[in-house]
Amino acid sequence: MTFEWQVKFWVAFFAILALALWLLGGVLLPFVAGMALAYVLNPLADRLERHGMPRWIAALAVVTLVVMVFVLLILVIAPVIGAQLAAFIENLPRYISGLQTFVTDPSRPWLNRLVGESFVGSDKTVGEIMTQGAGVATKFLGSLWSGGQAVISILSLLVITPVVAFYFIADWPRIIAAGDRLVPLHQRDTVRRLAREADVAIAGFVRGQTMVCLILGLFYALALSLAGLNFGLLIGLVSGLIGFIPYVGSITGLVLSVGVALAQFWPDWIWVGVILGIFVFGQFIEGNILMPKLVGDSAGLHPLWLMFALFAFGYLFGFVGLLLAVPMAAAIGVLVRFTLRRYLESRLYTGEEPR
After folding, report:
1. pLDDT at 114 (0 to 100)
2. Does 352 reside within a domain?
């Protein structure tokens, strides 16, 4: 198999995969989510199997444990989060009005020039600009909601995903063995090496970044709540949840928390500074302790490449694309590095005749 044939094969493979996702995206969500859950839980099932537990019992045990934890979290956290979300939406106009007053206060002409004139110079108030921004966000969320047929998808997600995860975990060794048998014999070692590289990248990022998001979400939620910030629990958990996207979670949490702090504590700058300091400290912990220890360099996914992949796959394929963005980005990265290595070894680069 020539190098050119390999390139054509992988290009065709990803093109067919993208077409399938585009055509079947509305029904793939519970299956993709189940596969993702199985991938994360498979090492735990392997460990239970090594201790003598039958494979199907190990799969049933880990899936049941996850479902029980998820239901418990919903029962405990959902009422609190729901109440805070409803209160936040109810108080949003008051916060917008307070921020508008703060920005356009004549005693701070520098802030008015920096923010007010640049955004309201075209006969628009800050409130109108923020209302338009909220409208754009609502439209985006609505497109995800309607595009994925949300009601059906959510019900199927809750019911079908655990079942899919159980079967994938139970049959994981056979699935891997069957895929390995389909690889041409003379390419098997290369494909196995590339698969291991992709697995290291995916596992290193997904498992590590999940722990980082959980730790930061809990830290922000507790710290903001203890600081007395309204809706601190909601803002902190949201910041941790969307922290899977590099920079977006921290920036979103910072903007929301400082905006609420200005509307709530002003003119007490000390508490506004405390809220700001919580996020500065959280970013220091993330960049210097959590990311090096939990994610490290094993993921092989540059933050900018990952951010682009999340937005691109999310835009093209909705929520299914978000679930597939990390493994696809890792696989594409592995293939690109492999292609570059082959190019650097080729006659096209070296100019030498093959021996």
Report:
1. 54
2. no
Specify if 321 maps to a domain.
yes
Q: Which of 307, 235, 293 is nearest to 264 (CA)?
A: 235
pLDDT in tens, 63-82: 999 989 888 877 877 777 77
Per the domain annotation, does 223 fall within a domain?
yes
Side chain identity at residue 235, one-letter code: I
Encoded tokens for 102: 């703060």
Round to whole Å and give the CA distance between 175 and 255.
45
Highest mean pLDDT among 166-170, 175-179, 236-240: 166-170
pTM of the complete model: 0.65
C-alpha to C-alpha distance for 9 and 2, rounded to whole angstroms: 11
Full residue range of the structural domain in which residue 238 is found: 200-344
Assigned domain for 277 exists: yes
Domain count, the chain: 1
d(CA 196, CA 188): 12
**Distance of alpha carbon 323 from alpha carbon 147, whole angstroms:** 15
More confident residue, 353 or 258: 258
